[in-house]
């Protein structure tokens, strides 16, 4: 157990290091070197800040054409003193930003359109419900189920039609009216 040997050496007051301590310190040194190299790499990969002139040229080029071919990319990179990959990435990012903005606008328009349609749908459902109630009251009065058309909100639950002619008024004996109490 390496921890116990290190612990016992430090408690005994000896100044010598065990083999485990030496290998740990070497490994720790290697890890520190790797970390510092990674920090240097991230420090060298700072975000590219374009000058106002470079940005203006890129934007005008993008307004003229949203995609550029290899020759145009290399010519623009030379003109701006950038790498061709930097020009390519800038144009791709610009297209992506525009696409995302347009998607947000479209989403908002669809959301508003959905709200309008939803409220219209609810209004139509209420209208259908009112019309069904009115039809039920009218049919109940017409076929004698009730003597008063506004009789206590009675609603017809089912109406059976004449099987031969499919109409209510042709054969009143074939009509069956079932009343349901106020809803």
From TrEMBL:
This is Homeobox domain-containing protein. PANTHER family: HOMEOBOX-LEUCINE ZIPPER PROTEIN HAT14 (PTHR45714), HOMEOBOX-LEUCINE ZIPPER PROTEIN HAT9 (PTHR45714:SF34). Residues 41-101 form the Homeobox domain. SUPFAM superfamilies: Homeodomain-like. It comes from Rhynchospora tenuis. The keyword Nucleus applies. Residues 43-102 bind DNA. Belongs to the HD-ZIP homeobox family. Class II subfamily. One of its GO terms (cellular component) is nucleus. PROSITE patterns: HOMEOBOX_2 (PS50071). GO terms for biological process: regulation of DNA-templated transcription. It comes from the Eukaryota.
């Amino acid at each position: 157990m390496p921890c116990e040997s290190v612990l016992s050496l430090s408690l005994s007051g000896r100044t010598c290091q065990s083999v485990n301590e030496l290998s740990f310190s070497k490994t720790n040194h290697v890890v520190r070197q790797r970390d510092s190299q990674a920090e240097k790499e991230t420090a060298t990969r700072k975000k590219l800040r374009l000058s106002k002139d470079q940005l203006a040229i890129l934007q005008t080029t993008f307004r003229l054409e949203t995609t550029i071919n290899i020759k145009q990319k290399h010519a623009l990179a030379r003109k701006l003193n950038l790498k061709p990959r930097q020009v390519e990435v800038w144009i791709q990012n610009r297209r992506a930003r525009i696409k995302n903005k347009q998607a947000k606008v479209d989403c908002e328009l669809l959301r508003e359109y959905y709200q309008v349609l939803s409220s219209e749908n609810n209004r139509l459902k209420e209208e259908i419900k009112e019309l069904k109630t009115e039809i039920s009251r009218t049919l109940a009065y017409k076929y004698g189920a009730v003597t008063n058309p506004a009789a206590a909100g009675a609603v017809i639950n089912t109406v059976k039609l004449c099987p031969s002619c499919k109409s209510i008024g042709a054969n009143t004996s074939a009509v069956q009216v079932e009343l349901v109490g106020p809803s």
